[in-house]
């Protein structure tokens, strides 16, 4: 997932981007507190592909937050990311029983050596800020009907997040579309990519003519993203086009610039758009919102509880 940006999200998660799980996590028991010695004895470890040893859950989350969100973000945004990442990790690994890739297909993870390399100018200060966010949310997860949610997240929306239904066809109560207008000020909100006509045609199973760019049809969903694109009898989903062209989002427009002799694709947003917008979270934190308020906004009707690792 790039460095932090390629979170994307989404958010956030290209495996999650293209195949939204419909089965939620197993039921869990929550607790208020437990002695430190008990927590250590029952600690959950995460097996990260490519790492020699299993990693304690909270150490793993430190590496995920450092990779998925800019350390310059407000602590409340970092805390929201920590809780979402912890929930996603436990749900997708079945509490550490299954390994997880440290990539955009799941969650990007940087070990301590990678963090030192990335933060050469201020490793101690940055590490302290991330660790504080992790410690202040230790063990906290997101639940819906007492089950771990699929805590999808992404870098930047197009001004509205994507619902699970529009993304995958599966309606999930806590993954509904919400306004995220502050994303318009994100540095990743808009982008442009260009190809010559020959380069463009090398990507497609059909040969485009210049006139085709005036007759191609776009069908949008409720959040303004491309649900499908049609050229004659050829139909592609917005997600298929995004993958084919390697563009940031499914909110895109395609045009042929005859003056430049280039095919131009403009996009809005960065990532799949489902769940929490990271730049939206930062804007809310800057407005004084807490991590809890951020999470309750982007994930509807959820609870934030602390897991009891001893009962796993």
From TrEMBL:
It comes from the Bacteria. InterPro entries: Bact_Sporulation_Assoc (IPR051922), SpoIID/LytB (IPR013486), SpoIID/LytB_N (IPR013693), Spore_II_D_firmicutes (IPR014225). It comes from Lysinibacillus xylanilyticus. This is Stage II sporulation protein D. Residues 53-144 form the Sporulation stage II protein D amidase enhancer LytB N-terminal domain. NCBIfam families: SpoIID_LytB (TIGR02669), spore_II_D (TIGR02870). The lineage of its organism: Bacteria, Bacillati, Bacillota, Bacilli, Bacillales.
